[in-house]
Amino acid sequence: MGTAGRSVRESLLDAAAGLLVERGYRGVRMQDVAAAAGVSRQTVYNEFGDKWGLAQAVVIRDNERYLDGIDAVLSEHDDLYSAVTAAVMFSLEMSADDQLKKAVLTGAGGDEMLPLLTTQAEPVLFTASARIAEHALRHWPHLDGEALTEIADAAVRLTMSHIMLPSGPPERTAHFVARMVTRYLTAPEPPAGG
User: Which residues fall within 8 angstroms of residue 148, CB to CB, at 6 or more apart?
Assistant: First the structure.
């Protein structure tokens, strides 16, 4: 089924994301998701197994869209420092406007989904770190792959902590993370004022 060329899965994920933002995790029923997508409740269970599986799929899809944006941002910069700064800024700005992440982080309707971005976030973090490292190695093949993988993981985790608990202006955080990455990789920083 689906609507206007969208798959059933995409329709269900769209419906679930909207309901999670509107009602929080506790307030969402599989029947409500099915009704919003125009399918049977059994279709939702067949596709995702249970409500937790559905919530995970929503967060993973949101993360994939975010990573597509990170790829685009990284591609706009020739030097690593500028690329990291822009990627962190993109992350902080996107998260500030992301209603789904706000619902997860603030525990709207119950805090059951918070582990998807914290204690059980390993798949999301691993995917983000790996994809960023792969992108960086394609653009800067001279960098040490092992060191890049290590620092990408640290940068993603640090950025995520600033998303959940900001400690200053986004620009300051972005430059701090960029300095950390470039110093770890011994990549040159831009001249002062850059």
Answer: 133, 136, 137, 185
Which tokens sit at 11? 């329709």
Task: Give the global pTM.
Answer: 0.75
- Name 174's Cβ contacts closer than 8 Å, sequence gap at least 6: 84, 85, 86, 88, 89, 92
Query: What pLDDT was estimated at residue 20?
Result: 86
119-161 pLDDT, tens digit each: 455 556 667 788 889 989 999 999 999 999 999 999 998 998 8
Q: Where are the domains of the chain?
A: 59-184
Q: Which amino acid is at 70?
A: I
Q: For domain 59-184, is the CATH number 1.10.760?
A: no
Sign of CA dihedral 86, 181, 177, 132: positive
Phi, psi of 128 (to 5 degrees): -65, -50
The pLDDT-based confidence of 67 (bands split at 50, 70, 90) is confident
Instruction: Name which of 5, 108, 121, 109 is nearest 60 in CA terms.
Output: 121
Count the neighbouring beta carbons within 10 Å of the beta carbon of residue 172: 11
Give Cα separations from 189 to 56, 82, 160 (angstroms): 38, 9, 23
